[in-house]
Amino acid sequence: MAYSDVTIVVDERDDLFYTRAALQAHRPGEGRIAVQPTPASGSPAALAHDMLYALGKRLAPGPNSPDVWLDSVNAAWLAAAAWGVAMGVRHVVVTRAHLLTIRRLDQLLAWRESTGAQLTLLWQKPPRGLPPVLACVERRISGREEFEALLAEPGPIAARPIFPPVLPAETGLAAAVTVGQSPARQPPRPGAESTRPGPPAPPCTGAMATAQLVQAAPALKIGSEEAATLAALAHPLIAGALSALAFTRAGLGSLRFTRDLDITGDVSAIKLHGVNHRYCPLHAVPDWARPLLAGARAHHRLTPRPPGDSVFAPVVLAEARHLRAHAGRLPRLGLSLPAGALVP
After folding, report:
1. Contact call for residues 47 and 181 (beta carbons, < 8 A)
2. Which of 152, 185, 236, 272 gets the highest tally of CB atoms within 10 A of its CB?
3. Torsion over CA of 289, 295, 298 and 300, rounded to 10 degrees?
């Protein structure tokens, strides 16, 4: 474990100044968040949920919530790590860290290792109570001025991934043409491309190679309220998948074959695939959806699955019940996810 980017702020007197300064420094858009652990929560994934909340994500409520799979510790922390990477989080300040269990401190340190962010823990009791896992941390401060200077530091990574504005895509038939396809081919009706059988075809090139030959189809517009609701979804794969369906109106089955290389490096375009690659259009990604697809890609890269695997496979398999449940909670988007769209 590397501790070079971990700082302990010793606040023996529980001075309100430190908590107030930490909360005032919460600026996700600048790469700094303040996490307030839920007191006395017995949920194993509670701290990961607190991290997601600080990142602006909201879990769906209720006993039959479509976010129930985030009750799993590993799933919740993986989601939090993916969002941390995608949002460019560079500094995390955790208040009242002295109340955390050893297990949750371990989880927090592992999250820091995954994201590369700087971690600051407010230890609001005498330092003699530091557990062994934190005893090795060399950087400790205890003064107001030192803490204010720490909050002003730039942090170890960029504040936010750079998402340059997407240039307006050309309209017309050229927007639907992809490598190896004839300009005369007419696009099938939405959803049909994922289930139509056909002769085998060689694997498609990725989005970057395709974007050098054709223009991406322009993204369909959705309301700002719907975009904000999608941005608040807690699981990166759910948020990324539903956003892609919203601005492309493609069939759900198209997401089954979307690989990491089917999303351009700057997340300005995404390539979808039909069965046997008979129809594989390139779509422009609107600005509001780029952080969401970046989160989905980060989630994929943080897992041990091969790069060539589908990014969205975990949410489109098993009848995509979590994806369908969230789509049902967003009726204004008009997303229809028929089960037949997943037939191989």
Report:
1. no
2. 236
3. -90
159 with 133: CB under 8 angstroms? Answer: no
- Residue 194 has φ and ψ, to the nearest 5°, of -85, -15
Q: In what order do the strands lie in the sheet with 91-94?
A: 32-35, 91-94, 118-123, 6-10, 140-141
- Going from the C-alpha of 24 to that of each of 19, 35, 93, 310, the distances in angstroms are 9, 12, 11, 40
How many CB atoms are located within 10 Å of the residue 343 CB?
A: 10
Contact 47, 104 (CB under 8 A): yes
pLDDT digits (tens, 9 = 90+) for 47-80: 999 999 999 999 988 777 888 889 999 999 999 9
Tokens of 90: 């560079």
Place of tokens 């690659």: 277
* Amino acid letter, 189: R
Distance of CA 269 to the CA centre of its chain: 17
The closest of 126, 96, 92 to 109, measured between CA atoms, is 92
pTM of the model: 0.84
User: How crowded is residue 12: how many other Cβ atoms within 10 Å of its Cβ?
Assistant: 12
Q: Which two tokens stand for residue 283?
A: 């779509």
Q: Which token pair is 281?
A: 């259009």
Q: DSSP secondary structure string, 164-207?
A: PPPPPPP-SGGGG--TT--TTPPPPPTTGGGT------PPPP-H
Integer-rounded Cα Rg, in Å, for the chain is 22
State the virtual CA torsion across 216, 218, 224, 225 in degrees, nearest 10: -80
Give the integer Cα–Cα distance in Å for 91 and 89.
Answer: 6
Q: How far apart are CA 288 and CA 222, in angstroms?
A: 10
Q: Of 239, 8, 15, whose CA–CA distance to 134 is shortest?
A: 8
Query: What are 205-253's pLDDT values in tens digits?
Result: 888 888 888 889 999 999 999 999 999 999 999 999 999 999 998 888 8
- H or E segment and range at residue 211: helix 207-211
